[in-house]
Design brief:
alpha+beta; Immunoglobulin-like; five-stranded mixed sheet; four-stranded mixed sheet; 15% strand
Amino acid sequence: MVGAGALAGSAAIHLDLYLTGYRRIPTIGPLFLVQVVVTGALALAIAARAWSRGRRLGDDLLYAAGGLAGLGTIAAYLVSLDVGLFGFREVPTTAGAVAGGLELATALLLLATLVTGRSGDRSAARRLRPAPAGLAGIAVLAGAAALGASLVAPTGASQRPTSPSHGRAGAVVTVTIRNFAYVPSVVRVAPGTRIRVVNDDSVTHTLTATSDQGHPPAFNTGLVPPGTARTIVAPRRPGRYPFFCEIHQFMTGVLVVT
C-alpha cells in the first residue's frame, strides 16, 4: 500500500505539471500524460490487491510493473537534468526532488515486496489483517497525492503588468513569460532600454538572446524562477536579436533594437 501511495504521489505531481504548462512542451507533454495514466492505474490496481487477502500470480506482475515504472520515471528525470530529453532540459526544483524520492521509494518498496513475497514466510503474510494495513495505505496514498500537488502548485507572479511592444531609451519594457510563451514575442526598443522579464509560469525559464551576426549571446537573464523577475539592458548596437529559453528551446521571440 505504501508503494501504491508513492506511485500515486508521483502521478499527482506529473498531472499538476502537465496541467500548469508542461502539456505545451512537444513530446514531453504527451509523455507526462502517459506517465500519469499508467502510474495512476498501477497505483489503483496495486492498492486493490494489497487490500484483498491472499496472493495471486498476477500480483507479481503488478509489483514488477510498478517498480519498473518508478525506475523508468526517475531515470528519465535524471537524463533530462543532465543532457536533456527530446530537446527539453529540466532544472532542479523541490517538486522534482520530491517526485524523484517518491519514484525511488516506489521501486524499492514494490520490488522488495515482489522478492520477499516469493521467498518469505507466506503463512505469516496470511496472518496479517488487511483492514488496518489498507487504511494505512489509503492514508499514505492520499497524503502523497496532496503533498505532490501542493509542492508544484503555481505560485504566480506578484505583478501581472501589461507588456508593451515598444520602448525608448531610459524606459523600462516588460516581457512576461506566460503559458510557455513570451508576451510580447516581438519587442522593439531603443539601444540601452531596460527590459524587465517577469515569469508568470510555474516553472523556471530564461530569456537568452543572440545577434543576427552570429556573435555570442547578446544578453541572458539567467534562470528566472516562478513568480520572479530579472532586468536586462538592450544592446547598444542596433539589429535583430532572436531570443529563446535555454530550458524550453521551443519558446522563441525577437528583440529589435533601432
